[in-house]
Write a structure and sequence with these properties.
By secondary structure, the chain is an alpha/beta fold. The protein binds BIS(adenosine)-5'-pentaphosphate.
Length: 236
């Protein structure tokens, strides 16, 4: 009998531990480093990387209806309508495992819809990481960003250049400049961030696990701080 009780206790502990995977929102203005850090976290902690921007760009490349509907919003730096985005995210948030959301939620309505989706699964967000960088730094950063159209990895001509000029380190594809990385579109994306995405921070401010990190630090230093915040969720 004592053995059975012990076994049950072990099982309960295992279920509670297994449930506690990181469910992370990376939030911050365009160019703050969300994609860079999300890719790192996804590889290190085996989390699903859900980047709404990457999914939309992939849909545009494939010429899907969603991609066609999103194009004009993306090219001018506006938010794609919530109903298109939320359906897209719901399709990805199917399993029980950990995930890192990159670029979502981006409006108060999206944050509320996300709460609804996760409350059904009983696995709420347990980490919200804000990457903080000033607008002027971001304009410079995004103008010098280059992206791989195949694997979506990003580079920066000064701070994070590819090993071979103009080519992706991972698959050798020729790097491109994103059409929305032109200065006038960058400025509009920043305005949209301040008007529509910053209010999302208020949605999470009283919840546990919210942290602000200085996104102007070197990529490795940001990585270390992000890691310090996530490690307790993984190892207890
Ligand atoms: P999206 O693709 O999400 O763009 P974004 O949020 O504007 O973010 P970025 O991808 O530009 O930047 P990032 O923060 O990921 O930075 P990165 O790591 O690349 O969205 C594009 C569009 O899709 C939106 O405008 C909208 O139209 C639509 N959309 C997407 N999601 C939506 C949603 N939920 N609702 C509605 N519409 C949506 O880094 C940037 C550069 O800096 C790189 O070159 C990198 O190498 C470098 N870098 C990174 N970290 C550092 C560092 N610490 N120091 C120096 N350089 C660094």
């Amino acid at each position: 009998m004592r053995r059975l009780i012990l076994l049950c206790l072990c099982l309960i502990t295992w279920v509670v531990w297994a449930d506690d995977a990181p469910r992370v929102i990376l939030i911050g203005p365009p160019g703050a480093g969300k994609g860079t850090q999300a890719r790192y976290l996804s590889e290190k902690y085996h989390l699903a990387h859900i980047s709404t921007g990457d999914i939309l760009r992939e849909n545009r490349k494939q010429g899907t209806e969603l991609g066609k509907q999103a194009a004009s919003y993306m090219d001018t730096g506006k938010l794609v309508p919530d109903e298109l985005i939320v359906t897209m995210v719901a399709e990805k948030l199917t399993g029980d495992g950990g995930f890192v959301l990159d670029g979502f939620p981006r409006s108060e309505a999206q944050a509320q819809l996300l709460d609804g989706m996760l409350s059904k699964s009983g696995h709420p967000i347990n980490s919200v990481i804000l990457l903080d960088v000033s607008d002027n730094d971001l304009v410079e950063r995004l103008s010098l960003r280059r992206s791989c159209p195949t694997c979506q990895r990003t580079y920066h001509l000064k701070s994070n250049p590819p090993k071979k000029e103009g080519l992706c380190d991972v698959d050798g594809t020729a790097l491109i400049q994103r059409p929305d990385d032109k200065e006038e579109v960058i400025r509009n994306r920043l305005k949209v961030y301040h008007d529509q995405t910053e209010p999302v921070l208020r949605h999470y401010q009283d919840k546990p696990g919210v942290v602000k990190i200085d996104g102007r630090l070197d990529i490795q230093d940001v990585q270390k701080q992000v890691d310090d915040n996530l490690r307790p969720l993984v190892t207890h």
